[in-house]
Amino acid sequence: MSDSLVIIPTYNEKENIEKIIRKVFNLSFPFEVLIIDDGSPDGTAAIVKKLQLEFPGLHMEQRTGKLGLGTAYIHGFKWALQRSYNYIFEMDADFSHNPDDLFALREACVNGADVAIGSRYVRGVNVVNWPMSRVLMSYFASMYVRLITRINIQDATAGFKCYKRVVLETIPFDKIRFVGYAFQIEMKFTAIKYGFNVVEVPIIFTDRTEGTSKMSTRIFREAFVGVIQMKVTSWFRSYKR
What we know:
This protein is an alpha/beta fold. The protein has helices at 17-25, 44-52, 69-81, 102-110, 132-149, 165-170, 181-193, 217-234, and strands at residues 4-10, 32-37, 58-62, 87-90, 115-119, 127-128, 161-164, 198-202, 205-206. It has one domain (4-234): Spore Coat Polysaccharide Biosynthesis Protein SpsA, Chain A, CATH 3.90.550.10. 39% of the residues lie in helices and 17% in strands. Strands 3-2-1-4-7-5-8 form a 7-stranded mixed β-sheet, with helices on both faces. Strand 1, helix 1 and strand 2 (32-37) form a beta-alpha-beta unit. Belongs to the glycosyltransferase 2 family.
């Protein structure tokens, strides 16, 4: 059994799911993969089930209905903590996150980080195929998060990460309230408040070429308002471990 688990949430990813799974299992390190599928009507889960016959390290949890990115990852975190994984990753199914970068994230945690973030902005702006409006929205969202929360993270909304097990054992998941875009911000903020060492690892982010983006204005709105709520709530919480 590997010590490293890559969690990939899916909803209607039939165009990408087999390719991303094969890519991860063809890497030189034996990562295992957990797919969290939210009842994809396009047959994503059926593709994963077929591939499980080929890859023993491929796991899947199926949920009924589209329940949100944050709850998918928390479901995966709890699943991982019931087993002996030491490094738990978040990664998208659409190749916007390059599986080759899993090595750099893992190495950062092996060498002292508690959370390693695949960062688009730690060395300039490293985004491919995004419209300028989307780049600016994402970049200024991170500036807004830094302004409100005072955390020194250049890519506060990044969703490509590696956690050491101890981080996920410490964070109380029942206190994580956001399920969309703001979930990624809240997890970073909470890890830092608990005193964990959060580092950024430069990556190149490439927008999906197949399938449909799940981003919406509602998700951005949740993040905008949620950051203020999160900061105010933190004044009344204890972060002892």
